[in-house]
Amino acid sequence: MKKKIIVVGGGLSGLMATLKICEAGGEVELFSYCPVKRSHSLCAQGGMNACMDTKGENDSVHEHFDDTVYGGDFLADQTAIKGMCEAAPKLIKMFDRMGVTFTRTPEGLLDLRNFGGQKNKRTLFSGSTTGQQLLYALDEQVRAWEVKGAVKKYEFWEFIKIIKNKESVCRGIVAQDMNSMEVRAFRADTVILATGGPGMVFGRCTASTICNGSAVSAVYQQGALIGNPEFIQIHPTAIPGSDKNRLMSEACRGEGGRVWVYKDGKPWYFLEEMYPAYGNLVPRDVASRAIYDVCVNQKLGINGENKVYLDLSHIPADYLERKLGGILEIYTEFVGDDPRKVPMQIYPSVHYSMGGIWVDTKHNTNIPGLMASGECDYQYHGANRLGANSLLSAAYSGTVSGPEAMRWAKEGEKGSELTDEELAKAAKECREEYEAILKMNGTENAHELHHELGEVMNKYVTIERVNKDLDYCFDEVKKILKRWDNIGIVDKSNWANQEGMFARQLRNMIIYALVVTRAARMRDESRGAHYKREFPTRDDERFMKITVAEYDQATEEPKISYADFDHSLVKPRPRNYAVAKKE
Amino acid sequence: MAEIKKKVHFIIERQDGPNSQPYTEEFEVDYRPALNVVASLMEIQKNPVTKDGKKTTAVVWECNCLEKVCGACMMVINGKAQQACAALIDHLEQPIRLSPARTFPVIRDLAIDRSVMFESLKKIHGWVDVDGTWEVHNDAPRQNPKTATIAYEISRCMTCGCCMDACPNVNQSSEFIGPAPIAQAHLFNLHPIGEYQKEERLDALMEKGGLASCGNSQNCVQACPKDIKLTEYIAKLNRDTNKQALKSLFNK
Fold it and tell me: B169 and B236 share a domain?
């Protein structure tokens, strides 16, 4: 009998895993909130890193590896990163064969550009919609397998939870049809979660509305461990908005964009002054902190507001069109100004989660039979992710999790298959929970409550973290959790009921917010994206360890511990972007 | 002097389910700079009360990225199918009328079922046939950067369905697959490996519901939010299919 793998999430990682499973002879049931072609991977703009060394710079895979380790402030598994960097050029060639419309050099080869935290041109790109193009290529390949019958898509289905058998091995999931509201349980040999990041926990961010981390939180509450949750990347250059912060790709800086504000009546290119070696191309955590400092502490933001200039206006318009077209459209469309002529106004925004479900190097979680890959895992980025490494880690992790899911399906100690009774019981529990939500008659509006969650998380758990504020924030989030019980659901319909589903997601988001906040509170050092003025330096002795969060049923709070990880390849050294990186 | 709070007035066509009767409800949302239609619908979610103060359910619609890349939030706004996230209130005449794109079956309120578009991508063989995801120890062929630029333009199609809604020949009683999937066939024909399946794609476009159903109204190219030159590629495929039809006639 064919092995059946459930993949939850149809972004770059989920689709890559799906292809690998199909090629190994397995069958995939693919679950997604949306048609997989609309997954959040398509919001990645600037590119994907791979050492192609086609620009006469003697770039090497080792340099990519070392930049990633250094950029991540020595908190990521080095063997895992090495594997990823070695695979990157091969993945690019695969995407090229699949028809990704990479931007080309005049002689028809793949072009490369600069990106933050790297001195060599190493970033492959497709205009400024690289994620869209990579996602579409995998979407097309998966469609071909769908035609062959190896993939069955469950689009507009929401994952609710995993089902374990009596040996405590994950052997299936419960999901809900977002239109008919039918709750159904499914059997599987292996389950892969590839559900993306938790941006919505912070309300406004650069993420899609579907990136709520709900699935991650759900399996965490079922015993999956979370790794490094406090490491939340703040992207330095986003257009602040009331509905969302829209990303302005790091490619702007990669293509020569300069960041400045007025100081004493003259433009002050503060990144170039503070970090002469990397200038505007410092990594994201460094740039975000500098912008925060200039605006909040020095009060030099544009017109006294929290905004700085990101300037492309000195670059020829036709060059910009070819290299950055798509995102300049976004800016013009949503702001009304033309970045070819006037400097853009930007501010940092929550963007990416380095942390996520704890996995081993093969992407197994601590729950046998459950795997995680893509942004929802914690594996490749340590304390800070380099730009253009996310498309890489998403695609690469799928090439690891897919084959491993098949190996487990064939050889793993899976224990017994779920019985019909066990399936029915799991579905019934979820249906009853959902029906209880629909009956809620309190005074709180779930969307308003979500707004409050986002405000408090954005205020206290982003660029600069202060212990007493984190304590306050934790208490506030606990209060929000309590208030969740007093939600009122107006929509009692049994058809396409978005309000009911959102309330369930919201509870998971609140639980996850507690994990991020507590982990941030306990790490008394500054490393990568995690910065505390009270502890301004990296403390390798105490904290060169990964944070592990475990759910405590009784308190609904995380229990935090620290674990060693593989850093056997390069020795930690101070991270300083004011000077050229040394090995 | 206290500023009078400006309001934005919406008239929204609602429908409880696929077979229910449509009805309208009116809403008012506080104005703010750079407000768009999706952000307005989010405000209604926070306070689902009509203009007349009647408590109601939040409006159901589909959205993801809010950056005009995912294609999800397409709806008809003041008579024109477009992405709601990029529809800025400042550019719209009030009252702003929202309705579902009825070219597609309505699921609920403004949410529609566009699965037919994804099914059409199967019909036109919308992928490059690769041997597998493994290494083949060969680079993909070089591409003329000019051809690659055209391919990039078409590859930005986000399957939103604006062109389908604008096309007079796409409707629930017609088999016409519509402009978006047709242009995708050209995308794969442009690729040096994808070209190997060009004949299969052209054959598919010569079947019922294919190119012959295009009435050349040219609405699609006007409607495309990504400015893809749909009519140009449809014309190109028309020439390609004619050539192929002639060739197979002589080879009989």
Answer: yes
